[in-house]
Design goal:
single chain, alpha+beta, 7-stranded mixed sheet, 5-stranded mixed sheet, 14 helices, globular, binds glycyl-adenosine-5'-phosphate
Length: about 475
């Protein structure tokens, strides 16, 4: 049973230190969230799983970490300055401002039908106008109105990869096909952020640009990466029933895409329309590498980029031809993956006393804490000493915590709620037989294990 709605997860996340509303001491900042001690572990574990899977376990992908602030010309030639827009309308009565697609229904013929204003109920809208959603900043100690100081916080990590294509290819002596992966923060001045960490103005992306020949089977490669990611998501504990695919129609695709498939997650199981995008896989063609290259010509034979000093084309030794590689791009959100993982792992169970307990059934790989070491009696120094020594001996190889701040039932419940797969209890008998009790989060079954075999025992069980 996954979480019945996002609110259930918001409350758990705040109570147990996964995610806090940001800037709360000043009344908060709309749709900004801070990751707490457990949230940062969960999010790091997701990013590490992704990096290991693509960069370490495959032979055809390199990793990079580019700047968040790039030369403004990157965003000019990528098309973002001209097209990275939301369309906005104002209500003439209450002056409320909305994204057009939120208050207009699009009919089959492409025309828009106005709905009532969600705030005042009127149906009096201004013309739609474009609002560029790149977040602006100024570089250097310059006058406020100096246009040369304008810079953007990147709205996607992808461009940092494109402008480094030749650097990586040359330095790492790569031949096509190969990919470049990057994980990091992106920023968008979203008009309607919301739904917890689903849509925020500052978020993290895990993007990979997979470079292939112009005559590769691009559509098949999109299908291949869709399948790969579906498998990765299932490995993170997401149930197949909560995942679906959406073939994005042409009029909804980004300017660079010839085909996009979105992987959707059931973030709103309580709603009539439960699905929202978890990630997208796009065939970006050779648009970006061509756009940043000095030698690419338009239909009239004119250079499309007079500012570029490089040509990001590729020379294929086997065919002795030079071309701009095409790109298949799987682009996933870290925060949306965190939310999906939390929702899917959420479950409830009733104990012998009829009390309902929350159990977060995270796969061990993602659990913020792998094992909690708990003393049965905190006023018995020998037991406390033994438990702390066990914790210290485990911590170089796995994330373990020691906790003695409650009775054992409460301590178990607390660890269940944050997804700790295994609890290790040190009791009076442990002092005699050098053994401890290992308790399973999901079954609540207990097993006696020798302290000398504990590290191996835990490692084995955490790998399942
Ligand atoms: N480079 C392609 C690209 O950026 P996108 O579909 O706009 O494509 C990719 O973004 C992923 O980034 C989305 O599927 C989503 O997971 C995440 N994402 C995008 N905007 C977001 C936002 N405002 N808040 C949280 N995650 C976001």
């Amino acid at each position: 049973m996954p979480a019945p709605n996002i609110d259930t997860v918001v409350s758990l996340a705040k109570r147990r230190g996964f995610v806090f509303p940001s800037s709360e001491v000043y009344g908060g900042l709309g749709s900004a969230w801070d990751y707490g001690p457990l949230g940062v572990e969960l999010s790091n574990n997701i990013k590490q799983s992704w990096w290991r899977w693509l960069v370490y376990e495959r032979d055809d992908i390199e990793g990079i970490d580019s700047s968040i602030i790039l030369n403004r010309l990157v965003w000019k030639y990528s098309g973002h300055e001209a097209t990275f827009n939301d369309w906005l309308v104002d209500c003439r009565k209450c002056k409320g401002r909305f994204r057009q697609d939120k208050v207009f229904d699009k009919s089959e013929d492409g025309s828009f039908q106005a709905k009532e204003c969600p705030t005042c109920g009127a149906n009096l809208w201004t013309e739609a106008r474009a609002f560029n959603t790149m977040l602006q900043t100024k570089l250097g100690a310059v006058a406020d109105d100096d246009p040369n100081a304008l810079a953007y916080l990147r709205p996607e990590t992808a461009q940092g990869i494109f402008i480094n294509f030749l650097n990586v290819q040359t330095a790492m002596r790569r031949k096509l096909p190969f990919g470049i992966a990057q994980v990091g923060k992106s920023f968008r001045n979203e008009v309607t952020p919301g739904n917890f960490i689903l849509r925020t103005r500052e978020f993290e992306q895990m993007e990979m640009e997979y470079f292939v020949a112009p005559d590769a089977e691009h559509s098949k490669l999109v299908d291949y990466w869709v399948e790969q990611y579906m498998e990765w998501f299932r490995g993170l504990g997401l149930h197949s029933d909560n995942l679906s695919l959406y073939e994005v129609p042409e009029d909804e695709r980004a300017h660079y895409s010839k085909r996009t498939v979105d992987v959707m997650y059931r973030y709103f199981p309580e709603r009539e329309k439960p699905w929202e995008e978890l990630m997208g896989i796009a065939w970006r063609t050779d648009f970006d590498l061509g756009a940043h290259s000095k030698n690419r010509l338009d239909a009239e034979g004119k250079r499309i980029n007079p500012d570029s000093t490089e040509d990001l084309s590729y020379f294929d030794e086997s065919t002795k031809t030079r071309f701009y590689p095409h790109v298949i791009e799987p682009a996933a959100g870290v925060n949306r993956t965190v939310l999906a993982v939390l929702m899917d792992a959420y479950s409830e169970r009733t104990n012998d006393k009829g009390e309902t307990r929350v159990i977060l059934k995270l796969v061990p790989q993602l659990a913020p804490i792998k094992a909690a070491i708990l003393p049965l009696a905190k006023n018995k120094p020998e037991i406390v000493g033994m438990a702390k020594a066990i914790k210290r001996s485990l911590q170089p190889t796995l994330r373990a915590v020691y906790d003695d701040t409650g009775g054992i039932g409460k301590l178990y419940a607390r660890q269940d709620e944050i997804g700790t797969p295994l609890c290790v209890t040190v009791d009076h008998q442990s002092l005699e037989d050098e053994a401890v009790t290992v308790r399973d989060r999901d079954t609540w079954e207990q097993e006696r294990v020798k302290v000398s075999e504990l590290a191996d025992h835990l490692q084995r069980r955490l790998q399942v």
